[in-house]
Write a structure and sequence with these properties.
- This protein is of the alpha/beta class and 445 residues long.
- It contains 17 helices and 14 strands.
- The strands form 2 sheets. Strands 3-2-1-4-5-6-7-8 form an 8-stranded mixed sheet, sandwiched between helices. Strands 11-10-9-12-13-14 form a 6-stranded parallel sheet.
- α2 packs across α4, α6 runs parallel beside α7 and α10 crosses α12.
- The longest helix has 32 residues.
- The protein is elongated and about 75 Å long.
- The chain starts with a helix and ends in a 7-residue tail after the last strand.
- The structure holds ligand SAJ.
Length: 445
């Protein structure tokens, strides 16, 4: 252990990162920037080629420049040969996606494949860490059996730790470098080595715990956020009925020193928040328990895109538009503002439902290059021209800065503008035959 600890401290430890996605690639680049030699591994040949040219397949603020630096000075090299990269590593990070299947059950296939690659390259003395979000209990139930098929013993022949990533997309580089972290070790030596490794790349406080607690911490962090957002959404639905502005009520309530309500939105997307509560639900059921509050919060958040659909249809009928002849413009395919990630985007159920009902819908996004199989354009004018109803679904700064006069000159009056993110100025978007509606405000359905 001391030998490996010293190699970390003098940055001569060879690092391998399995999985070069929204978290793995920034992590690999940051570790390389700190002076380590890093092998980045991914199954996507396309990504490997781009990365080895210093280009980023992931759209994250500052990542392209950082990648260019570390690839140019030979500190980061990408490969598809995971086994070789594990064999040559002192420390291996597994940072692969862990989605849920259509039945909301955990899909750990990619995660297991990654660990089988680690198994094939495993030898004594390595430190193995994963940052992937997993159902509590997975490290002991799934990962350990795979690794110990080699005959090597965790905690003695190799070290094993879990440290959930907490970086928020659009701030990933800053947050990997500065966020506090939890490090859960299989044993004390594993915790200590993982602590030493993360101390080399982050200025944030690092708390040590055991593996099971660390697994639980990650999913409860995101489940908490999901419940908070669901609370805000339910308040928004109530305020619409009451003719109260939910954002005003929430902002004033948050003036209380111990109240911190998040913002209502048209749905909860991304690759984590919509998924992690189901990991908790799955893990609870393994212990014969139903977690009702968290399940209900998921139900509320998953219903929000359909509430926006109700507002769209109500708006068309209030402006006497024939739904079958109307043009609906969806602004925002990404799951939230200023990212190109459209995984679990709230726009998806809206677009797919309108398409199924043969309603003319076209989507726009300044970052994403395609939508969910419908009509799409990166040209805003093409999307809003002659539109009967415009729906702001992502809080991109690009939409905050839209010129109201130009937009209103292009639509087909009467036109409704539905502000799903409360980012437009109502006064600028309400005049002769332009109707502004906002989630959580004013007219009820
Ligand atoms: N949203 C709202 N209202 C809000 C905040 C968010 O409707 O007040 C929506 C967003 O529009 C988006 C979704 O929720 O559709 C999730 O976005 P987010 O910004 O809340 O979170 P993520 O998924 O981008 O990142 C989260 C973060 N988790 C927490 O803040 C507890 C991040 O720290 C995690 O690292 C990340 O999940 C992850 O990878 O687990």
């Amino acid at each position: 252990m001391d030998h490996l600890k010293k190699k970390i401290q003098d940055k001569t430890a060879n690092i391998t990162v399995l999985g070069l996605g929204y978290v793995g690639l920034p992590l690999a680049a940051i570790i390389a920037k700190q002076g380590f030699h890093v092998s980045g591994v991914d199954i996507k040949e396309e990504s490997i080629k781009k990365i080895n040219k210093g280009n980023s397949p992931v759209n994250e603020e500052g990542l392209e420049d950082l990648l260019g630096d570390v690839v140019a000075d030979g500190r980061l090299k990408a490969t598809t040969d995971g086994v070789e990269a594990v064999k040559s590593a002192d420390i291996v990070f597994v940072v692969v996606q862990t989605p849920i299947a259509d039945d909301k059950e955990p899909d750990l296939n990619a995660f297991k494949i990654a660990w089988k690659t680690v198994r094939s390259g495993l030898s004594k003395g390595k430190l193995l860490i994963t940052e992937s979000t997993i159902p509590p209990g997975t490290m002991k139930k799934v990962v350990l059996p795979i690794l110990e098929e080699t005959g090597l013993k965790a905690g003695e022949d190799f070290y094993l730790a879990y440290s959930p990533e907490r970086a928020i997309p659009t701030r990933t580089l800053i947050e990997i470098r500065t966020n506090s972290r939890i490090v859960g070790g299989y044993n004390v030596a594993s915790s200590e080595l993982a602590f030493t490794m993360y101390s080399a790349i982050t200025s944030g406080e690092i708390k040590k715990t055991d593996i099971e607690t660390a697994e639980m911490v990650k999913v409860i962090e995101n489940a908490y956020r999901d419940v908070n957002i669901a609370f805000a959404n339910e308040i928004a639905l109530l305020c619409e009925k009451k003719g109260i502005d939910a954002m005003e009520a929430i902002t004033l309530a948050n003036n209380h020193p111990r109240v911190d309500i998040l913002s209502p939105g048209p749905g909860v997307g991304g690759h984590c928040i919509p998924k992690d509560p189901y990991f908790l639900i799955h893990s609870a059921r393994e212990s014969a328990m139903e977690i009702e509050l968290i399940s209900k919060a998921r139900e509320i958040n998953e219903s929000m895109p359909y509430h926006i659909l109700d507002i769209i249809k109500d708006s068309l009928s209030r402006t006497n538009k024939d739904t079958q002849k109307a043009k609906i413009s969806i602004l925002g395919v990404a799951y939230k503002g200023n990212t190109d990630d459209s995984r679990n985007s709230p726009s998806e159920p809206i677009v797919k439902t309108l398409m199924k009902e043969k309603i003319d819908v076209i989507s726009h996004d300044p970052f994403v290059s395609k939508d969910f199989g419908g009509k799409f354009s990166n040209n805003l004018e093409e999307v809003v021209k002659d539109s009967d109803c415009i729906v702001v679904m992502a809080d991109h700064d690009y939409y905050r800065n839209i010129d109201p006069i130009q937009l209103k000159s292009m639509v087909k009056r009467p036109c409704t503008i539905i502000d799903g993110r409360r980012i437009l100025d109502q006064n600028a978007f309400s005049d002769e035959d332009i109707h502004y509606r906002a989630l959580g405000k004013g007219k009820s359905i």
